Amino acid sequence: MSIQILLEFDLMVVATKNGIYAPSSPRENMCLKLNMILTQYVDTLSQRMKYHIGYPTNMHYEHHAILAPLLQFSLNNCGYPFTQSPVDFHSKDFEVAVLDWFAQLWEIDKDEYWGYITSGELHSSGILYASKDSHYSIFKAARLYRMELETINTLVNGEIDYEDLRSKLLVNKNKPAIININIGTTFKGAIDDRDFVIQTLENCGYSNNRYYIHCDAALFGLILPFIRHAKKITLKKPIGSISISGHKFLGCPMPCGIQITRKSYVSSLSKIEYINSTDATISGSRNGLTPIFLWYCLSTEGHARLQQDSKICIENARYLKDRLLEAGISAMLNEFSITVVFERPCDHKFIRRWNLCYLRGMAHVVVMPGITRETIDSFFKDLMQERNKWYQDAKALPPCLADDFGTQNCMCSDNKMHN
Amino acid sequence: MSIQILLEFDLMVVATKNGIYAPSSPRENMCLKLNMILTQYVDTLSQRMKYHIGYPTNMHYEHHAILAPLLQFSLNNCGYPFTQSPVDFHSKDFEVAVLDWFAQLWEIDKDEYWGYITSGELHSSGILYASKDSHYSIFKAARLYRMELETINTLVNGEIDYEDLRSKLLVNKNKPAIININIGTTFKGAIDDRDFVIQTLENCGYSNNRYYIHCDAALFGLILPFIRHAKKITLKKPIGSISISGHKFLGCPMPCGIQITRKSYVSSLSKIEYINSTDATISGSRNGLTPIFLWYCLSTEGHARLQQDSKICIENARYLKDRLLEAGISAMLNEFSITVVFERPCDHKFIRRWNLCYLRGMAHVVVMPGITRETIDSFFKDLMQERNKWYQDAKALPPCLADDFGTQNCMCSDNKMHN
Question: Hey, are the CB atoms on B89 and A52 less than 8 Å from each other?
Fold first, then answer.
């Protein structure tokens, strides 16, 4: 595919590089060729859909045909979502509708929140505390914005190590604390305990105006609110901001994020000296299509679909984890999580076929909406078949994953004896 | 429009806020309503197209229907464009094809450049020198990344004031200089002289490894290379990077930018101590649709269309400027520019109708592809009619714009006498 795209394209460039349009074939021919490339690309992607189980992107939405006419326009939501735009080609009304939806979900009044739809970033001064299992963009942001950073250890399941957080908070008591809380870590799908973090801050003597909590709820932010018994994500607690991804659990053809914070932080910057967000939005120009996709998705399906998807995904994730453990394959699944972590497959072709994401001795499947039991079974069957080959001669043994999964979830020969 | 969107949406939220899906109308009804809103929105935008003359967005492309099927997928070009992606749902082959095109345009070898397609930012340490007419995102970036900033004055036409630059460079000789050069300023469409800036740096004693030049060619980067007698934008000169916007002159339904720099800056960071771009891309996730839109646009039309569009736009801009001056309205147009700056209309309704962008006593029209003589004439006619009302009783007089446009372009009563 890659070679073909470049070739076709180079032909065209060669034909026109003297600034004179002298195509080797008529324009229609060129268009036909390009359309062929595109059709082939779309076909390949369509076929690969059912192998897309390693990354959290929901592509089982159906609004693309209805929303396609919007591609005629270049919609740019420049600046604040709430101020009237001086131009026509924006979708701020849709953006505000989506933000209102999330404000309601996260229990903050319409006139008390501020937010926007973007690719989502964090910017503050003070010391940033983030667990080592946080998304890499947190560490990148810290570097880019030249923030002081304290990396906190994690527990076996991927949650922040509250004891390590406590001791580092105590050492740095002279400076305000900005805490990144993960609501679903990238790799293990672990959920940090908001209440416990808040209590730790208070026990360490941080008053309310000396700390700021950001919740990175990229994937799980649209799962937890719809699960009975799961702890709410709510701005009634002393949380400064919440961000989620739009292209993950909800589904959107372009990467995007929703960011909600308290209006008081934005309008009266001087009051909170450690929120250095002097500018409201980080990128000036913002994609105007994404709010409409999100709006349409939430409007047509909303709570009902999210509730159903969350339930099914969690059930399917448990199903996969159980099958793996029963087959003697080390695996782990956090409570309320859809990310099944398991022993990393030996064969790179297998990893590539199933779009698996891996880290050290682990790999994971994110059981997203649209990943059916059939897909899971087909993956499981493929894994079992291949795995028999990897370990058939006992030349190699499956790795011990007790440190990463806990002994109860490690099925290596040493641990099996004890279990 | 805005109220209706919110209303429809709120109805749905109310119906489902208890987490139980209890719609007041069946699902099909809801979809019909949403589609009505969308149709109305698309209609409004379509009607407003011919009034979109104040901002540089080209919406006269025709690839939207062909590329619409891509909306089925969530394409994410995460990380480097040049490394193979571990997943299927990306468009890096298209991205690299587009980058290659620009590398060729800006005269840098395939294996010597590095770049990516994104919303585009700048990140460095050292002192940043930018003229006060630079795009606001430059100043925002400087604040976000906590860079030292020297703002340089501009000449009457919007070009950087080389004398002011020289004196500020001399004061700060102990620190490396990062210079933002505008190839088309946002408001006046002024083009800084690259050679003169480079010469100034050398005259001030800055050696090649003590300065870094970034060219912000957002709009004009796809005009100048296609105009005979215009100075080339070329990386054969000691320029560090060039960025342009994809949604402006070329046209793309989403805001995007192309950024090209020298590979040596990215691969051997330690050598150039003032390029602190420790991470390759600034945002991790990048929209995978935009490269395909750009690729399609360049492939089907490429040099030929850009050459034709540039020529027509510059001619049409001159036509508008001449009509304004002949009618006694202060106006200015830089050489090779498509941005006609003129006396700011008094009536806000008029400004809003024509999507005009204004600053102090000035407004501008950006004569983009698709803005025809008919549109220009219709705008001019409307302006003349309205303007007669604004100044009919001689209660108010048109403002003097000699400071902003130069006396030869100012048509206020004082200057008229001298001209």
Answer: yes
Statement to judge: residues A172 and A276 lie in one domain: yes
- Taking a C-beta distance cutoff of 8 angstroms, is the pair B70, B292 a contact? yes
Alpha carbon distance B366, B375 (integer Å): 12
Residues 6+ apart with CB under 8 A from B370: B58, B59, B60
Using CA atoms in the order A2, A39, B57, B247, what is the torsion angle rounded to 10 degrees? Answer: -20
Among A250, A254, A295, A350, pick the best mutation site for testing chain B contact (most B Cβ within 10 A).
A254
Whether residues B267 and B138 fall in one domain: yes
Q: Strand pairing of B257-262 and A113-118?
A: unpaired
ipTM of the complex: 0.79
CA distance B104 to B97: 11
Residues B190 and B319 in one domain: no
| A368 contacts A306 by C-beta, under 8 angstroms | no
* Identity of the residue in A70, A93, A254 whose CB atom sits nearest the CB atom of B287: A254
B47 assigned to some structural domain: no
In a domain, residue A57? The reply is no
Reported as a single tens digit per residue, the pLDDT across A8-34 is 444 444 334 334 334 445 667 777 888
Same domain, A110 and A256: yes
Residue with more model confidence, B284 or A370: A370
Residues A297 and A402 placed together within one structural domain of the fold: no
Residues of B whose CB is below 8 A from A19: 226, 303, 307
Nearest to A97 among B9, B35, B136 (CB): B9
Interchain pair B65, A64: CB under 8 A: no
Cα A104 to its chain centre, rounded Å, is 21
Residues A206 and A232 in one domain: yes
Q: What pTM, to 2 d.p., does this model score?
A: 0.82
Whether residue A294 is contained in a domain is answered as yes
Nearest CA in chain A to B139: A279
**Does residue B275 contact residue B316 with C-beta atoms inside 8 Å?**
no
- Which domain does A223 fall in, by range? 69-301
Active-site residue among B134, B243, B277, B337?
B337
Q: Are residues B26 and B131 in the same domain?
A: no
Active site amino acids of A: 337
CB contacts < 8 A (A, B): 266
Domain count, chain B: 3
| pLDDT tens figures, A197-210 | 999 999 999 999 89
- B contacts of A119 (beta carbons < 8 Å): 119, 283, 285
Instruction: For residues B115 and B73, state if they share a domain.
Output: yes
Residue B149 lies in a domain: yes
Q: Do B31 and A70 touch (CB under 8 A)?
A: no
Inter-chain residue contact B65 with A67, CB threshold 8 Å: no
